[in-house]
Specification:
Helix content: 40-55%
Order of helices and strands: EEHHEEEHEHEEEHHEEEEHHH
CATH class of the largest domain: Mainly Alpha
Structural class: alpha+beta
Number of strands: 13
CATH superfamily of the largest domain: Transferase(Phosphotransferase) domain 1
Number of domains: 2
Length: about 290
């Protein structure tokens, strides 16, 4: 299975105990000296200096060298399957594939996080395994949900100007992403980061690249992002209709075909959105 994986430049594939490690050369020696192949021991050793970032689960943030910190993200199943299998996978190389795709995205000049390693850790019942991705933390980064909440519903002129700039930048970034042939499997507000004046797109688990991404696939990604916007508006995130259209128009640019396609799919999407809104209201009731 791993013989077919195209190992990126400046990476090494290493087998150690029950772990298969794909590590970036600049960090390889440090991580191996710290015993990264045994994650339980590695985390205990760094317990006092570890902080946690919120995602679907908590992601440890661990200091490594030169003031940098490393994010350790473990893979979990989604949906109903997660109840039974949780973090155990079979017959795939999920973390390695995401690392390779992330490096390909970076090579296209698309701002994202920098991966430094992936771990395929075999369980006591091979070929079942657990998977982890190692990336450098982006200092001061907020996902778009956190960013909009921090800006607030009535920002002063400077913050409003920054917000508009970030929304336009997000539209341009996603257009670049799609024009390069990439499709994001989970495009939502949590997977777009703001750090200073720069936007990044992250989390490419099960994403892929085509020679040309069709308009239909682009619309599917945009509808997924729009659904995320609608959901978080229900939970109090101050995103306006103007914010949303500023993003869409920035994404479309001068492409009238894309602009027309977006308007059509948004009109036909309204009925399905009613069902999502009912689900979100129930979620709020249950959560309260």
């Amino acid at each position: 299975m791993f013989k077919k994986i195209p190992i990126p430049h400046f990476y090494s594939l290493i087998k150690k105990n029950k772990a298969l490690l794909l590590l970036k050369d600049g960090y390889k020696n440090f991580l191996l000296q710290q015993g990264i192949e045994d994650l339980e021991t590695f985390l205990k050793k760094n317990l006092l200096n570890t902080t946690y970032l919120h995602g679907r689960t908590l992601h440890p943030s661990i200091p490594i060298s030169d003031g940098k910190r490393m994010i350790l993200r473990q893979y979990f199943h989604g949906g109903l399957l997660r109840t039974f299998t949780q973090n155990v996978f079979l017959l795939s190389s999920r973390a390695f594939k995401e690392l390779i795709l992330t490096e390909e995205i970076r090579s296209c000049g698309i701002p994202t996080v920098e991966p430094i390693g992936a771990i395929h850790q075999v369980t006591r019942l091979p070929p079942f395994y657990r998977a982890y991705l190692l990336t450098l933390e982006v200092p001061g980064a907020l996902n778009l949900i956190q960013y909009f909440k921090e800006i607030g519903s009535k920002p002063h002129r400077e913050k409003l100007s920054h917000k508009r700039k970030m929304i336009r930048s997000a539209g341009l970034l996603l257009r670049q992403f799609h024009q390069s042939g990439f499709f994001h499997r989970d495009l939502q507000l949590k997977n777009i980061l703001v750090a200073g004046d720069r936007i990044r797109i992250i989390d490419f688990d099960r994403s892929y690249r085509k020679l040309i991404l069709t308009t239909g696939k682009r619309m599917k990604n945009l509808l997924r992002l729009n659904r995320s916007v609608e959901k978080w508006k229900q939970f109090g995130c101050p995103i306006t209709r103007t914010d949303r259209w500023r993003f869409f128009l920035s994404y479309a640019g001068e492409d009238k075909e894309i602009e027309g396609a977006m308007q059509r799919v948004l009109r036909t999407y309204s009925l399905r959105l009613l069902f999502y809104r009912l689900g979100w209201k129930l979620q709020k009731i249950v959560g309260s």
